[in-house]
Amino acid sequence: MAGTQAETPSETGKMLIMRGNRLDSRELFSSEREIIIVHGEETYRLRLTSQNKLILTK
Predict the structure, then answer these.
(1) What is the pLDDT along the chain (58 residues), one digit of tens a residue?
(2) Partners of 7 in the beta sheet?
């Protein structure tokens, strides 16, 4: 399966690898335990908990 690269709007310019419509969460959380997602006018926080669960909040 061929992978594609998508840029993230971060200060470090990190590149993420997507395989089809899949993205490994280890790539998202390789250096942080929380990421900010901007969707239109809204901002969301996706956090990785100490129990390795994901929490999405607005």
Answers:
(1) 455 555 445 455 778 888 999 999 998 898 899 999 999 999 999 999 999 999 999 9
(2) 15
